[in-house]
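Project outcomes to date are best conveyed with an example. Our students and postdoctoral researchers have been running inverse folding experiments weekly, and each run begins with a structure described purely in tokens. The record below, which covers 348 residues, was selected by the lab manager from last quarter's runs and is presented without edits.
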């Protein structure tokens, strides 16, 4: 009998894949085998994985390669030379490959050639439904395949959207949910409560229907569309729009969701009272929400995308052409603090 309950094969070692790897390694009953078709993927894993591990919370990020070597020596981490080697003994196979339907379909057809017929099949796709991914495979794949969409970065963010296809068996869905509920959260910030007092970190949510983009991204993209419209129309600058979000919606939504917030805002009448009282304003705003076109396949039509140049220019002027490592680390510490505060408030 193996000392590990779960053997995960992670296919794809990009940013999401490495973040997921750090997440899975928090479970002491889980070992992980990684595979990526890039010829230099092992050196990339060795160079980048330490930044996602809890032992590297310090801002210096100077972590010895001994951390990776120890994981490999203990069999907790294996870097596979081929897809077959990665998946053939795995109990869970999770893909983090590019968001292209044809490539995901081809991947699953290849995976099932070598994998155990009872292995759980998970996709980290941010918008491609499980039913579409399994369309080129037999029914036994569709019964096991489920989307487990993490919010970026998954080693920190608590949300996992579980999106089964119409043929996915209920017990497969419950397995995913239970797995993520039992994954410990990241190491707490100094001064937070002891590890034995930790409450559940990950919040897996099962969606009842497949819908493009799922729920988290649909909400985020709806706000992004209106933000692009408002900046493109010259109503507000990109920097000031961000300030509006972080000074109002951000703090409120960190403690209460959309419906809970407006339910509280309705007073004694709750959300029904809120909708009654503000119906004229809501109707007026909903009727005037902006619509902006975004073209695929590179640069779009200038006439249809007048907003793009304004948004890109103002955002780069406000924050620079790229996010600096110093800024990224500072934002990560802040994000950890917000999530920790949520957990403490909910468990009180």
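After processing, the design step wrote out the following sequence:
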């Amino acid at each position: 009998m193996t000392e590990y309950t779960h053997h995960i094969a992670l296919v794809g070692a990009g940013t999401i894949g490495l973040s997921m790897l750090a997440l899975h390694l928090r479970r002491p009953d889980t070992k992980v085998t990684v595979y990526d078709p890039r010829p230099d993927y092992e050196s990339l894993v060795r160079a980048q994985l330490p930044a996602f591990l809890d032992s590297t919370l310090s801002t210096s990020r100077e972590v010895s390669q001994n951390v990776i070597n120890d994981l490999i020596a203990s069999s907790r981490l294996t870097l596979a030379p081929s897809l077959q080697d990665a998946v053939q003994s795995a109990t869970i196979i999770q893909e983090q490959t590019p968001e292209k339907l044809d490539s995901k379909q081809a991947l699953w057809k290849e995976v099932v050639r070598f994998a155990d017929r009872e292995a759980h099949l998970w996709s980290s796709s941010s918008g491609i439904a499980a039913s579409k991914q399994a369309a080129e495979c037999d029914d036994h794949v569709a019964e096991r395949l489920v989307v487990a969409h993490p919010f970026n970065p998954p080693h920190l963010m608590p949300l996992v959207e579980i999106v089964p296809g119409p043929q996915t068996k209920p017990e497969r869905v419950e397995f995913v949910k239970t797995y993520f509920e039992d994954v410990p959260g990241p190491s707490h910030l100094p001064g937070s409560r002891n590890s034995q007092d930790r409450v559940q970190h990950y919040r897996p949510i099962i969606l009842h229907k497949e819908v493009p983009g799922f729920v988290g991204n649909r909400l985020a993209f709806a706000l992004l569309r209106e933000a692009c419209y408002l900046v493109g129309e010259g109503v507000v600058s990109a920097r000031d729009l961000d300030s509006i979000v972080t000074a109002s919606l951000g703090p409120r939504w960190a403690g209460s969701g959309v419906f809970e917030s407006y339910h509280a805002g309705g007073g004694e009448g709750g959300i029904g009272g809120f909708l009654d009282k503000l119906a004229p304003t809501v109707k007026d705003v909903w009727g005037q929400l902006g619509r902006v076109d975004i073209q695929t396949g590179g640069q779009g039509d200038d006439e249809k995308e007048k907003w793009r140049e304004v948004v890109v220019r103002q955002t780069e002027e406000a924050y620079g052409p790229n996010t600096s490592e110093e800024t990224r680390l500072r934002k990560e510490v802040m994000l950890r603090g917000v999530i920790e505060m949520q957990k403490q408030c909910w468990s009180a």
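The chain is about 50% helix and 10% strand. The longest helix spans residues 325-347. The training component of this project remains on track.
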